Amino acid sequence: MALFFEWTDELSVGIQEIDEQHKVLIELLNELHDAIRQRHGSEASVQILGRLADYTRTHFTVEESLMRILGYPDYDAHKQHHEDLINQMNELQLRLSAGEAVTFELMHFLRHWLTNHIMEGDKRYTEYFLSCGAQEKWHKKSWLERFWA
C-alpha cells in the first residue's frame, strides 16, 4: 500500500534535527489518513489529530527557539505563519470534536500545508542556521525524538 505522504530528500532542510521532526509530522498525517481510509471512526481521528497538533506545537517551539537564539532575521514572519497554522489546527479540532468528519479534502490540505511550509518557509532558514553554527547531523538522538518515540 502506498503512503499518503512520503518523505523525500527534496523535503530535507539539511538539518537532521528538523528533518527528523518533519518526518514525525508526516508519519502522523499518514496515521490519520489510514484511520480515515479504514473508517476507524471519529474518535480515532480526533485522537490522532490531537497528537498531530501537540507535536506540531512542540516542533514550532523548537524552530522558534532556534530562530531567537540565532537571531534569525525573518523570525516574526515565520512565527506568524506558525501561529496561523496552530489557529487552523485548533479550529479543526473543535470541528471534529463537534462531530464533523475528517475528509480526504482536509488531508490534502494538511499535506499541502506541510509541504509548502517546509519548501517555502523552513528551507529559508537553513543557510542562516548553518552559518551560525547549527549542526547538519546530530551526534546522538534528539531529546525530542526520545520524548515522542
Count of discrete domains? 1
Over all CA atoms, what is the radius of gyration? Answer: 16 Å
- Overall geometry comes to globular
Distance between the termini: 24 Å
What is the CATH architecture annotation? Up-down Bundle
Percent of residues in helices? over 70%
Structural class: mainly alpha
Summed up:
The protein is mainly alpha-helical and 149 residues long. The chain contains five helices and no strands.
What does this 3D model show about the protein?
- The chain has 149 residues and is mostly helical.
- The chain has one domain: Up-down Bundle (Four Helix Bundle (Hemerythrin (Met), subunit A)).
- It has helices at residues 16-37, 42-70, 75-97, 104-131, 143-148.
- The longest helix has 29 residues, at 42-70.
Record the SSE blueprint.
Blueprint: H1 16-37, H2 42-70, H3 75-97, H4 104-131, H5 143-148
Helix pairs in contact: 1-2, 1-4, 2-3
List keywords for this structure.
149 residues; mainly alpha; Four Helix Bundle (Hemerythrin (Met), subunit A); 0% strand; globular
